[in-house]
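hey can u check if this looks right to u? its 370 residues, i copy pasted from the old doc so theres a chance i mangled smth
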Amino acid sequence: MKRAVAWIAAVLAVLAVVGVGGAGWYYSGLVIDPSHGGSYPLEVLAFDGSKVTLKGGSDTAAPGTYGLTWRDGNATLGPVISASGSTVVRQVTRVRRGTLAPGVRAYFDRWIWGHEDPRSALGLPYETVSIRSELGDFPAWRMPGTSKTWVIAVHGRNANPSEALRFLPVFHALGVPVLAISYRNDEGAPAGDDGKFHLGATEWREVAAAIAYARGQGATGVVLYGFSMGGGIVPMAARELPGEPIKGLILDSPVMDWNAPIDLGARQQGVPLWLASVGKFTVERRTGISLDDLDHVRHAKEFRQPILLFVDDDDASVPIEPSLRFAHLRPDLVTLVRTRGGGHVGSWNVDQARYEQALRTFVTASAASS
């Protein structure tokens, strides 16, 4: 009997280990597995030419200006008219393309113009160029300008260069060239050796390649501009490239410490934090990265460039506390712009005038220092 009990206990222990390991593998995949499929969680219930009624989503009542994007169309949304439960009525400023009608499935678009390009969205000149990195040629948008200081824009996880569309008019008006890049495992770009995101630990090399491209085209300085995960890649590039003429960093809702969003995701899914720790351990084992090394707060003393940092108090994807700690540690470098109500990478949407003024001031000063 004792042998049987011991055998059963051993089997249960193995099953527990396998179960925990399987869960860790699953949750690690949510962090490092690329996903390029689109989703349309909102349903259009009504549209009368000036206002639209939307059902679904958790943030459609956010204040400010947003896009509404569906499979073959896009509209610009203005203020909230009313909200009740899961239904929101918003003003429609313009239907740019497609037909907006009841039954359309769409998503709430902080990028405003979906996955368009600078010419179709804004009427701005640009060309698609190739940037050679160690894995091959990476597509990028190049918007021309007269300044010798270029902005290199680095999008977020599972995103693309369209994330930078909102900000291009500011740089165009200043005559600042923009290079909006792709990096490994992006759709249409070379994959990494293991096909996984390394959360900035290797993606910074595409930023290095973009800097080399800009310098080859006459740039004497660059400002690195990162959104979300791109806001974690950019600081890593600055740390890895101390000899490059990086004049400043602009970080919008950046991942300054990957522990924070992983823990937040676990809480949102009702997963115990100890299992999130297993997931982190598995992320490190599957990719060879160190989350401690990617914690830029831990490495705050290594930074030398001025930093413009945007955070929104209602960010439900990337906790702002690491960014606030970083700003507290480096008040000599950081200009902090803090908004409320816009959510993740939504500071521009909720306060466009303040955001753009901060951009103009920062980039003008950076260009003057070249």
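The chain has three domains: 1-32+259-287, 42-109, 118-258+294-368.
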